[in-house]
UniProtKB/TrEMBL annotation:
Occurrences of domain Mannitol dehydrogenase N-terminal (ranges): 8-219
The protein, known as: Mannitol dehydrogenase family protein
Keywords of the record: Oxidoreductase
Short name of one Pfam family: Mannitol_dh
Organism encoding this protein: Paracoccus alkanivorans
InterPro entries (UniProt xref): 6-PGluconate_DH-like_C_sf, 6PGD_dom2, Mannitol_DH_N, NAD(P)-bd_dom_sf
The organism's place on the tree of life at top rank: Bacteria
Gene Ontology terms for molecular function: oxidoreductase activity
Keyword Nucleotide-binding attributed: no
Length: 367
């Protein structure tokens, strides 16, 4: 048994986690030691594991409060790395004996069911929720306390979705009532994360913008795993989701639409677009139409502050964020970001007028 104790068990090895949660655990109060677990079996990510322990760099580059930030920080709190493919017994021991919280960011398909979830015995054939069920069941059988579980996947109500999937697997496997009750006592956090992590540093580390957010919805007994300026406990996560989806994401989509209509240069970046007429037109739409929509929901000041921060993020001189990349799945993004915004506002103001947004929203129906 190792003499290293890690209260945070993290499923996921992405550069986002390296420059987001892991950096917060490094800088937060209290500082938290982490075991990083690879759950995908990807050989390239397996190579990365060996370089996460010890020390790796995170470069913070961009604009913050009108000033240029260009600095490097070191993350030294990853004390152990494991794989569910080759180290299942040790993963089980760490979750049972050391963990006070489990963190995950397993990608868009991390919750998708796999054939082994409800009947198999080999964790390599299981999705993340099924692996988590087996780990929690073992912890329960050892008499250990329920855990705080912090999913960071970009799924609405992620904690509820993960809890329900684990519960479904437990029922399919005829889990006893005592285990079902214990699983219900775990605190499944609903959270939202936001930071642009633009590129990796090899063999480990990442380049990220100054802005960072980890919003966690409050619930009885739940506390953030560490105290850090980027971690916020909020009463209603939907307000944060609306700001991100209908300001940051919506403005990206508006900018792409204006760029497409202008037959703009193929490698145009967000930063470059913000210096010209496309950026000016997008900003005007945001200020005259988007902010009025948020005001209808009583969020005028919060939206104005978030828009100012978003525009500063878009002007990051270090970020090579091409509009051609953002343009992927553009019709679907119009519907989810602009069409849904108009529907949301018209729930409280039926006659809400937003001619430019409405014009762009009609593009989704004719694409």
């Amino acid at each position: 048994m190792s003499d290293v104790t890690t209260p945070i068990v993290q499923f996921g090895t992405s550069r986002f986690l390296q420059a987001h949660a892991d950096l917060f655990f490094q800088e937060g109060t209290p500082q938290r030691a982490v075991t990083v677990i690879q759950s995908s079996g990807d050989p390239d990510r397996r190579k990365r594991l060996a370089h996460l322990t010890g020390s790796y760099p995170v470069r913070i580059r961009g604009l913050q409060d009108g000033k240029t930030v260009d600095e490097e920080r070191c993350v030294e709190i990853v004390r152990r790395t494991l794989s569910t493919t080759t180290d299942w017994d040790e993963v089980t021991r760490v979750v049972t004996e050391e963990a006070i919280a489990i963190l995950s960011n397993t990608g868009d398909s991390g919750y998708d069911p796999l054939p082994g979830d409800e009947t198999g015995n080999d964790p390599r054939d299981m999705s993340y929720p099924a692996k988590l069920y087996h780990l929690l069941a073992h912890r329960h059988s050892a008499g250990a306390a329920p855990l705080d579980i912090f999913p960071m996947e970009l799924i609405s109500d992620n904690g509820i979705v993960l809890r329900d999937r684990v519960t479904q697997i437990a029922r399919a496997r005829s889990a006893p009532d005592a285990l079902m009750n214990w699983l219900a006592k775990c605190r499944w956090a609903v959270s939202l994360v936001d930071r642009i992590v633009s590129e990796p540093i090899e063999p480990a580390g990442a380049v990220a913008e100054p802005y960072a957010l980890w919003a966690i919805e409050t619930q009885p007994g739940l506390a953030a795993p560490t105290s850090h300026p980027a971690i916020r406990m909020v009463d209603d996560i939907e307000r944060i989701e609306r700001l991100k989806l209908h300001i940051l994401n919506l403005c990206h989509t508006v900018l792409v639409q204006l760029w497409m209509e202008a037959n703009g240069e193929s490698d145009l970046t967000v930063n470059a677009a913000m210096k010209g007429s496309l950026g000016q037109r997008m900003q005007a739409i945001a200020e005259t139409e988007v902010l009025r929509g948020f005001a209808a929901h009583g969020m005028k000041d919060a939206a104005a502050d978030y828009l100012a921060t978003t525009l500063e993020r878009f002007r990051n001189p270090f970020l090579e964020h091409r509009l051609s990349d953002i343009a992927q799945n553009h019709p679907q993004k119009i519907q989810r970001r602009i069409g849904a915004f108009l529907e949301w506002v018209r729930e409280v103001e039926a006659e809400f007028e937003a001619p430019q947004l409405q014009r762009i929203a009609s593009k989704e129906n004719t694409a």
